[in-house]
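Q: Structure for this?
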Amino acid sequence: MATIRLAVIGLGKIARDQHLPAIAGDEGFVLAATVSPDNAGVTGVPHFASLDNLFAAGPAIDAVALCTPPQVRFDLARAALDRGLHVLLEKPPGATLGEVAALVAAAEASGSSLFTAWHSRYAAGVEPARAWLAARRIDRVRIVWREDVRVWHPGQDWIWQPGGLGVFDPGINALSIVTRILPRPLLLQDALLSFPANRAAPIAAELTLQDTAGTPVVMDLDFRQTGPQSWDIVVETDSGTLTLSSGGAVLALPGQSRHDADREYPALYRHFAELIAAGRSDVDVAPLRLVADAFLCGRRVEVAPFVD
Amino acid sequence: MATIRLAVIGLGKIARDQHLPAIAGDEGFVLAATVSPDNAGVTGVPHFASLDNLFAAGPAIDAVALCTPPQVRFDLARAALDRGLHVLLEKPPGATLGEVAALVAAAEASGSSLFTAWHSRYAAGVEPARAWLAARRIDRVRIVWREDVRVWHPGQDWIWQPGGLGVFDPGINALSIVTRILPRPLLLQDALLSFPANRAAPIAAELTLQDTAGTPVVMDLDFRQTGPQSWDIVVETDSGTLTLSSGGAVLALPGQSRHDADREYPALYRHFAELIAAGRSDVDVAPLRLVADAFLCGRRVEVAPFVD
């Protein structure tokens, strides 16, 4: 098939750290343009201050990857879909669930491929974990996602704004993994959300969930972790304990441990190319729906102000 | 077709005020049993303290209507669907969106009809409003839903619990109407939620929404209204103003006003009977999704404690 002419919209940390190298390493794509209001572009690639400018004066493109903060993603995604372009959405796929539903309708209307890209699902340990769990009785699951927001999200004020999700911005990665590796859907039972007195998004959360067979799943999220960081999922089964750590990269099973090379974003772009070739979309709102359910039903406590 | 043998689960205010009379007036249904842990039943109808007791010792039934508070509805609905029974869910259809998604899967697995019953959509003015608006340019929409919680929800403590939705319990009726009468989907833009210091659910809310063409929609919800009550939707169009008041019962169009007989629950049960006859489900999460999006993205302020 023809090479996909791709524009990357939003040139922040995730675009430069992950998207651009993955695109450069995939023969199915050529980086045809970049868009960002306040960044320089990439040497040798046409750069535009807005998507409208790209549409008006830029090269022809087939697809866009949206790497902006979630609050501004919807209008960009819809403009792209309405022009028949294929769209990859960084996670979370929208600031609201309604936005994602509207994008699905727009993609169906234009015949474009829409991909809600949950990058953590492509971590090396995830598919082996899923395969191992499929044949076992699962007794309980514990998720611990504790990181230092000052290290991982320095100056990212959008994360604290309404729709920025706070500690669920990394936490939704864990939810994207467990909704992939566990064989049954998850239901939120209870949530305790800790909001800094000066912020509109939570800095920590404790979630109690169950799968549809009643298996208990607990989740401990905290942005205030200093020292050792934790991105771990522990699943107790009738055949012993599975531990997925380092955000899904390292898988430990009874009697064995494996740590394959990190291929998250390369695998994600390969899947996007396959979706476009097949004329299909891949949309899953389950991780964002669990977060929305936690906000909908959760209890809220106020904690110390957070100053970046 | 054969008469549908129906059990009503949860005999609170809404069941006695609305469901039982509607069922009694529809030849397609026979009230075969009632279930409630702490109420007397209905004269001449077998009554059970739990759904399990009904399954163990009760008469054969074809369908259930779930009129309990939303927080306990999921397990009951799934138990009924897993036995192949058809299920009508009072609004809201679940305490979380994940619950509704899981019920859809359970209904598909068992071949049962699942009906998320948004009763306000059957108010007399709703379908004429929808037909009138379909042919017009809509400029703006204003929703005012202000009622005295002490009058309409006396002692209903569940409404203040997590998952009880607070002022969105009536407000979701307005959302169920506007998502029916407006021609395009709605997206939440902003929300301000007022929480009493001693409660886990909002007592008032201001929502800013847009439809997918950018039409502004504002919503003003308040549980603290004394004196005149308001359940009004005002739609300004290129052909003048449409006003739907009294919760959808009264429709005023330029030069005319109509107030047809209240047929909400009778119409709702007629639709349920038709779904069962056709082997279909009717599931729409849009109103609950908008509420979840408001909690997800909304800003929150603390207001005076509420004492019932």
